[in-house]
Design goal:
With about 160 residues, this protein is mainly β. Helix content is about 10%, strand content about 40%. An 8-stranded mixed β-barrel has the order 1-2-3-9-8-5-4-12.
Length: about 160
C-alpha cells in the first residue's frame, strides 16, 4: 500500500500534516525541521540538540517491534535520505535510526518520530494530535504486518 503524508505547517518547534492511507485520513505531528550540517536525515538528538522531523521524500514503511514497542509500530527507512531502520553504517557521523510512527500527543512524546491522531488540537497550550490510541489502532488494522511505502511532501506553497 502507498501512503502519503502531506505536511501543511513547518513551524519552528512542530511540523503538522495529514496522512492518507487507504480510506483513512490521519492528523500527524512531528518535531520542527532542523538540518544536520554533516549530511542528510535531519538533526539527531545529541547533547543539547533536539531531534528533527525527517526530510520530505519516499520511505519504506516497515513493521518495528522493540522493548519499548512490544506490540509493534512502523519505522521509516530510506538510506539515501539518511534514515535507517535499526543502525546506520559504522563510523557514519550523520543519519538517523528508529524514526517511528506511534501513539502520542505532543512533541514531548517523541524523539524525531511521527505521531498520529484523529485531529489536530492543543493540550496544555501545546500543538497536539488527539485520539492517538484509537487512530493508531485503525492504522495498524489497515497496514498489518506488511511493509508499505510512504511519501512525505509539503502542501503547495509550504516548505521546511
Amino acid at each position: 500500500m502507498n501512503a502519503e503524508l502531506i505536511r501543511h505547517a513547518y513551524l519552528p518547534d512542530v511540523t503538522l500534516g495529514w496522512l492518507a492511507v487507504g480510506t483513512l485520513r490521519i492528523a500527524t505531528l512531528e518535531e520542527g525541521w532542523r538540518a544536520d550540517p554533516d549530511g542528510p536525515g535531519g538533526q539527531r538528538r545529541e547533547g543539547t540538540l533536539t531531534e528533527s522531523c525527517v526530510p520530505d521524500g519516499t520511505y519504506s514503511l516497515v513493521p518495528h517491534v522493540s522493548t519499548k514497542y512490544p506490540n509493534g509500530v512502523y519505522a521509516l527507512v530510506n538510506p539515501a535520505l539518511g534514515v535507517y531502520h535499526r543502525e546506520k553504517p559504522a563510523g557514519q557521523k550523520w543519519g538517523r535510526v528508529a524514526v517511528l510512527i506511534h501513539i502520542g500527543n505532543t512533541t514531548e512524546d517523541i524523539e524525531g518520530c511521527i505521531l498520529v491522531g484523529k485531529r489536530h488540537g492543543k493540550l496544555d497550550g501545546r500543538d497536539a494530535v488527539l485520539e492517538s490510541g484509537s487512530t493508531f489502532a485503525a492504522l495498524r488494522a489497515l497496514l498489518g504486518e506488511a511493509s508499505h511505502s510512504l511519501t512525505i511532501r509539503p502542501t503547495a506553497g509550504t516548505a521546511a
